[in-house]
Design goal:
phosphoprotein; EC 2.7.13.3; rod-shaped; Sensor_kinase/Photoreceptor; kinase; five-stranded antiparallel β-sheet; disordered N terminus; 197 residues; 7 helices; alpha+beta
């Protein structure tokens, strides 16, 4: 990957002898450093942990210092103040005789994945609200109801038909879509009372 591209996965090693950390260029960049400009230490790593995650990370670091395998999902704050959600997985590092010499593993920056999940949830909520608001508006105009009363009717019909409110609103709007208002409100009445799963 080029130096300007965001790097989502990087490697690290912790050597018990001398309590030395090594990290790849990608891990350095996750923390906000240009590769080679800083020597990672336990203190430096702790400094970058989100305050609410420090206790959890300290417990994980105890495992690292004992040469134990671990996995952790926590937040780090880079030098620019941006928060990254990372998954860190470490396994035992052994020498040729099988003696544990430290821990080796990787960081995965999952900030973007989580952000896109949140963005998707927010847009789903917005779409649901828009459908429900449109259906409420139809009932308010058709029957001269308040917004609260129109909403109560939609909730009542969605429960009666065992249909999620968003789905009921969408089906109701589809049922009246393109209809030319006849004398009276029969098409609205019909849609309201016959819309079901």
């Amino acid at each position: 990957m080029g130096s300007g591209a965001p790097q989502r996965v990087g490697r690290f090693r912790f050597l018990l002898d001398g309590q030395r950390w090594e990290w790849s260029d990608a891990v350095a960049r996750m923390h906000g450093y240009e590769p080679g400009t800083v020597q990672p230490t336990t203190e430096l790593l702790l400094k970058h942990k989100h305050p609410e995650d420090r206790e959890q990370v300290a417990a994980v670091l105890d495992l690292v210092l004992q040469g134990q395998p671990f996995s952790s999902r926590h937040r780090i704050i880079d030098t620019a103040g941006h928060t990254h959600l990372v998954i860190v997985v470490g396994d035992l590092l052994r020498d040729d005789q099988g003696t544990v010499t430290g821990t080796s593993g990787f960081y995965i920056d999952v900030t973007e994945a989580q952000q896109s999940d949140i963005t998707e949830m927010i847009s789903d909520i917005a779409a649901s609200r828009a459908l429900i608001e449109q259906a409420k508006g139809v009932l308010m105009a058709a029957y001269g109801l308040s917004a609260q009363r129109a909403f109560e009717i939609l909730v009542w019909r969605s429960q009666e038909t065992n249909t999620k409110l968003r789905e009921f609103a969408a089906q109701f709007l589809e049922a009246i879509s393109g209809k030319v208002p006849p004398t009276g409100l029969t098409y609205v009445d019909q849609a309201l009372l016959t819309t079901s799963r």
